[in-house]
C-alpha cells in the first residue's frame, strides 16, 4: 500500500503548525519521522488519520481513509500511551476496540501475548507504567493487522530490552511489505531502525530521503589524520583544494576520503601515524540541519509556547 501525504496544513490561530507538507511512504521500509519539539510531527499524524481538521489530504492506495469500510484494517495508530479507560482491564479495552473493528477476541489474546502483556491482561491500566501503557497502545494498533502502522514516540518509557524487541518487531513488520512511520526523539535507535527519513522543522519539510543520504550530507563526515609533518600536509591539502582544520593532535579534512588524503600525504612526504574515516551519526546530522528550526531552546522561551501544544 502506498501512502501519499499531499500539502497537509494546520494552523492554531496565527500559529502555523504544519505548512504544505507533502511526502510519500513506501511499503517494505521503516520511515523515521523526525523534527524538534514543536515541529508538527504529532499534528501531521493526526491530519493523516483525519483526527484533526486542516488542509490537504492523505491517500491510502489512492483513496482517503474515510472511504474504506474498515479503516482500522488499513491503518493502525499508536499516538498516546495513556489512551485507555483507567478502570477497564487491558483485555477489555482491547476487546472494545476489536468489536468496533470487527476483530475476534481470539485476535485480542494474540496481540496481548505478542506485546508481552499476558500477565497484566486482567489488570486495570491506570496502574500501568509508561512502558506498559506503550505496550497496550501498540497492541491496539496491531489488532486489525493493518497495512500501515503509525507510531508516535513508541519507545518512551521502555527499558533497553523492550526497546530492542520493539526495534526488531517494527523491522519485521515493515519487511512484510507494510508501511511503517515512526516518530521518535531517540536518534540512536532511529539510526538502527529506519531505512528512510522524513524530517520537518516548524511545520515545513526539511528532508525526505534515505537515512544514508541524509547522514552523508553532514559536514561532520571527514578524514582525521595525525602526522609529525602537519604543516607540510596542511599546505599540500590546501594546494589540492581541500579544507584542512587542526583538531587536537591531528587534522580534520571534511568531505575527503582516506585514499585521497593518503595520496596527498605520500606526495609531500608526510609520515602518517593515523588515517581514519569518520562518519557522522544521525544525531549529528539531525542537529546540524535543524539548528535553525528549534521552537523551544534551553534558557529561552519559544514565541509559540501557547500554540495548542502541537508537536
Quick summary:
It contains 10 helices and 14 strands.
Explain what this protein looks like in three dimensions:
This protein has 311 residues and is α/β, with parallel strands linked by helices. It folds into two domains: 3-216, P-loop containing nucleotide triphosphate hydrolases (Rossmann fold, 3-Layer(aba) Sandwich), CATH 3.40.50; 222-278, 2-Layer Sandwich (Alpha-Beta Plaits). It is built from ten helices and 14 strands. It has helices spanning 41-49, 90-101, 105-114, 130-142, 160-174, 187-193, 211-216, 230-239, 258-267, 282-290, and strands spanning 3-12, 15-25, 29-34, 55-60, 63-64, 75-78, 148-152, 179-183, 196-201, 204-210, 222-226, 245-247, 250-254, 274-278. The strands form three sheets. It has a six-stranded mixed β-sheet, sandwiched between helices. Strands 2-1-4-5 form a four-stranded antiparallel β-sheet, covered by helices on one side. Strands 12-13-11-14 form a four-stranded antiparallel β-sheet, with helices on one face. A hairpin with a 2-residue loop joins strand 1 (3-12) and strand 2 (15-25). Helix 3 (105-114) packs across helix 4. It is elongated and about 75 Å long. The two termini are 26 Å apart. Mean pLDDT is 90; it is low at 300-311.
Main β-sheet description: 6 strands, mixed
Q: Which oligomerization state do the chains in this entry correspond to?
A: single chain
CATH second-level architecture of the largest domain: 3-Layer(aba) Sandwich
Q: Could you give the distance between the termini? A: 26 Å
Strand arrangement within the widest β-sheet reads: 6-7-8-3-9-10
